[in-house]
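Would you kindly consider the sequence and fold I have copied below?
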Amino acid sequence: MSTFPVIDVVVALGFLYLLFALACTTLNEAIAGFFHRRSNTLKAGIEHLLGDKGLAEAIYRHPSIASLAKPGRLASDKPSYIPSERFAAVLTDHLTGPHDVTDKDALAAGIASAPPALSKQLSVLLQLAKGDPADFRARVATWYDETMDRVSGWYKRSTQRQTYLMAIVIVMALNLDSVQLFNRLWSDSAFRASAVDQAKARIEATGTAEVPLMEYTEGDAADAGTPVQVGTISLTDSEKELLTSLRGWEEDRARLAGDLVRTGGGLGVRTAWLFGSIWSHLLGWIVTVLAISIGAPFWFDLLNKFVNLRSAGRATDEPRSKA
């Protein structure tokens, strides 16, 4: 047992937050994949960039862009990531029409026939490139990247909102009351020790450095490519067993059953129980939702630091980790 039980409680609670956040991340990725949120956000960003939906559709129909979508998808599905150089080349190819992409006159004519706002923007880029098509493509690529930085911000804000909603659903469905969890961790030494052991096991299995929960097939941006889970993201059997030991609504249901027996039941009793339960758990729910919404990487990093702090303050009779 640790010399400082407070540290054990903090480690155990942080570990539970980590597991809840992992569950939230997994659900977010599943929802994003099901609704094609990355590809839809990218398409909205390109339409905003070009200022013309018809032109955006023409860009997407180009073989260089269409080939980025996964084979076997529906025709309406779009790629979730388009490299800036490829976008610039496809836009230039569209502007020059049947002529070579290196044809200066065809490029100038194509820019002149583009929608007014886009034509003005591209004309400035062509002037800065001094009419050189290669330099023009490089400047279009930079312009595209700058816009995609804003699109990435759109996606991250949307994901954060979804994370809050997902956290609220998980917290209320499982009655994840932080105050209740803290009290149990403080009073139940067996539960606390189990959580601490599982926290140490995950740190040792994953490594001491902060590890991303997802890697993407087209770079590190959260709106780029397809998410691939890395590291020990899925829950182990021991971690699942730990989560199943949470009491959730067990005590509240027992209290309701007792109230029904004493009073003979009725809607009023159930309503009073419901509002009483909400009032008693509200603060703990809010704390848990905020904790989950911070994200699993934060809790993994913090957990790693507290596990090291706990090791530095272990009792003389506590065995040292081999790691």
Observations:
- The chain has two domains: 5-35+155-312, 37-153.
- Residues 208-232, 315-323 have pLDDT under 50 and may be disordered.
- Strands lie at 214-216, 227-229.
